[in-house]
Specification:
The chain has 283 residues and is of the alpha/beta class. It has 2 domains: 5-181, NAD(P)-binding Rossmann-like Domain (Rossmann fold); 189-274, N-(1-d-carboxylethyl)-l-norvaline Dehydrogenase, domain 2, CATH 1.10.1040. 46% of the residues lie in helices and 13% in strands. It has helices spanning 13-24, 36-55, 61-69, 93-104, 122-126, 160-172, 188-204, 210-221, 227-234, 236-250, 259-266; strands spanning 5-9, 28-32, 71-73, 84-87, 112-115, 135-139, 149-154, 176-181. An 8-stranded mixed β-sheet has the order 3-2-1-4-5-6-7-8, with helices on both faces. Helix 6 (160-172) links the parallel strand 7 and strand 8 (176-181). Helix 1 (13-24) crosses helix 2 (36-55), helix 7 packs across helix 9 and helix 7 packs across helix 10 (236-250). Bound molecules: acetoacetyl-coenzyme A. Residues 49, 56, 118, 141-143, 145-147, 189, 224-225, 230, 234, 238 line the site of acetoacetyl-coenzyme A.
């Protein structure tokens, strides 16, 4: 199946990046969010990102305008001619189920529906759509324009054709794909989230300061960000949620969330997005 038009549901941290890279790779994009205000914010973020690329002389103004011209904001009702629709709404089962329920009345037969979920079962989400064989997981990473990987997750009912279409689409965005089983945390979060949790445990036990724990992994292992900075970047609520999925689904105490991580979330210190997490971003 040739993909020409891509729908993006949700223009937050992940969705706006997905819409941007799809348009930059030549696809027509229709995008929406829960409210007009969120949608405008997401579209403005894309414009700002592309503006930065112009300032850095990576693209010229004409290219920026061409890319922006391929992205249209609209409502779910406008997704009827999309060949592939990527959902990147709030990481909550009920919200995602509701959104896919809405698509049932709109998406054309044969359209590939993809979820960018980082932790919810693809098989479970596919159970609410009309064509579960055309449902697949496409897990992008933040920041989407920079991160090279996309995990392609096949649920119990995903057809080989649908996984292939999603794989080729991700590759056409310049991404490298890996095929992953529909299992808690997929591949990346299965490894990354326990490491971040361990960093909170180490901080809680006074093994070293937050800065030193981050330096340990940056300078000792060449990670671009230390685990606590990365947790603030990803969101402590998202991190705790992903950890809870690992703990509940895989049933091992090794995934038990750090008490300190829980306390930060209870305090509303969710990371960069709230101005404070492990570190203070208010200034
Ligand atoms: N959007 C677009 N481009 C961005 C960007 C953004 N939000 N943030 C940074 N960049 C670009 C910069 O423009 C710069 O590009 P050039 O080299 O072409 O000029 C490049 O990335 C490097 O940026 P900086 O020099 O500003 O800063 P840096 O070298 O510290 O890199 C980083 C920033 C790319 C975010 C880097 O720190 C990094 O790779 N961190 C780890 C990110 C990571 O692990 N992401 C995965 C999170 S897990 C996840 O997403 C999934 C989940 O389910 C939880």
């Amino acid at each position: 199946m040739a993909i020409k038009k891509v729908g993006v549901l949700g223009l937050g941290t992940m969705g706006h990046g997905i819409a941007q890279v799809a348009a930059a790779s030549g696809f027509e994009v229709i995008a929406t969010d829960a409210t007009d205000e969120f949608m405008k914010k997401g579209l403005a973020r894309i414009e700002k990102n592309l503006g930065r690329l112009v300032e850095k002389e990576k693209i010229d103004a004409a290219k920026r305008d061409e890319i922006l011209g391929r992205i249209k904001g609209g409502g779910v009702k406008d997704f009827g001619d999309a060949d592939l629709i990527v959902e990147a709404v709030t990481e909550a089962i009920e919200v995602k189920k509701k959104v896919f329920g809405l698509l049932n009345d709109v998406a054309k037969p044969g359209a590939i529906l993809a979820s960018n979920t980082s932790s919810i079962s693809i098989t479970l989400l596919s159970s609410v759509v009309k064509e579960p064989e055309n449902f697949v997981g496409m897990h992008f990473f933040n920041p989407v324009p920079v991160m090279k990987l996309v995990e392609i997750i096949s649920g119990l009912q995903t057809s080989a054709d649908a996984a292939q279409v999603a794989t080729e689409f991700a590759q056409s965005l310049g991404k490298t794909t890996i095929a992953v089983k529909d299992s808690a945390g997929f591949a990346v979060n299965r490894l990354l989230i326990p490491m971040i949790n361990e960093a909170f445990c180490a901080l809680d036990e006074g093994v070293a300061s937050a800065e030193e724990i981050d330096q340990a992994m940056q300078l000792g292992c060449n990670h671009p960000m230390g685990p606590l900075t990365l947790a603030d970047f990803v969101g402590l609520d998202v991190t705790l949620n992903a950890l809870s999925v690992l703990y509940n689904d895989l049933g091992s105490d090794k995934y038990a969330p750090s008490q300190l991580l829980r306390k930060y979330v209870e305090a509303g210190r969710l990371g960069r997005k709230t101005g404070r997490g492990v570190y203070d971003y208010s200034k």
